TrEMBL record:
InterPro entries: HAD-like_hydrolase_sf (IPR050155), HAD-like_sf (IPR036412), HAD_sf (IPR023214), PGP-like_dom2 (IPR023198). Its EC number is 3.-.-.-. It comes from the Bacteria. The lineage of its organism: Bacteria, Bacillati, Actinomycetota, Actinomycetes, Kitasatosporales. It comes from Streptomyces eurythermus. Keywords: Hydrolase. This is HAD family hydrolase. SUPFAM superfamilies: HAD-like (SSF56784). GO terms for molecular function: hydrolase activity.
């Protein structure tokens, strides 16, 4: 597609650009401990994780958590994650890929289900904020799907990105659901929260590196 300026990537943050698996697993196990659940490994997490998040907990509890249990686990998760995310960094090659896509004349934005007020300072701290035309984190309750957030995100990008030339790059099947919801394409990366087997069920390209994801975005947005 050369340097067609209308090609656009919507990046996911956690598990995609931000390699925070250790913090995520630690926070998940801290939340589990509140209900007396045994800790899980990264491999177990990847095979079981799903959105909405209470359904993920149902897979381990054998039932949906009560409202009080959900609030306790959610608060514990975010408290632990905030303490331990400082040890995490960008995924290998992420900064170079962001700079390369931008220098080729394409646009990109960031949409995360991480709370907006927490997200922006973290992104800014890595010095990559200028690569994005827009950064949106979650507003409202946690635990839901990204689809409606994607609708609002793309509406805010009118004149920048057309859905049919937009590619969502993320690490969760929900990223593909959100992309499909707005008429965009998706590429899923295996380095984050989902196993390759679960990602392949989403019916979109699945890759093992962000470099492959960007290459696929170039091809599919052509």
């Amino acid at each position: 597609m050369g340097t067609h300026k209308s090609a656009h990537i919507v990046w996911d943050w956690n598990g995609t650009l931000f390699h925070d698996n250790d913090a995520i697993i630690g926070a998940t196990n801290a939340a589990f401990a509140e209900l007396g659940l045994a800790p899980i490994t990264l491999e177990q997490y990847r095979s079981l994780y799903c959105v909405p998040v209470p359904k993920f907990y149902e897979r381990l509890l054998g039932r949906l958590p009560s409202d009080a249990e959900w609030e306790l686990m959610d608060a514990t998760f975010h408290r632990y994650y905030t303490e331990h995310r400082v040890r995490c960094g960008l995924t290998e090659g992420a900064e170079e890929l962001l700079a390369g896509w931008r220098s080729d004349g394409h646009s990109q934005s960031l949409l995360s289900m991480y709370e907006h007020e927490e997200l922006v300072p973290v992104v800014r701290g890595f010095g990559i904020e200028p690569h994005f035309v827009r950064i949106d984190g979650r507003t409202g309750p946690s635990g839901g799907s990204k689809a409606e957030h994607m609708v609002r995100h793309l509406k805010a990008l009118v004149g920048v990105a057309e859905p049919e030339r937009t590619v969502v790059i993320g690490d969760a099947a929900d990223d593909a659901v959100a992309a499909r919801h707005v008429g965009a394409r998706a590429v899923l990366y295996t380095g984050g929260s989902h196993s390759r087997a679960s990602l392949e069920g989403a019916g979109v390209p699945v890759v093992d590196s962000l470099a492959e994801a960007v290459a696929e975005a170039r091809r599919t947005a052509a």
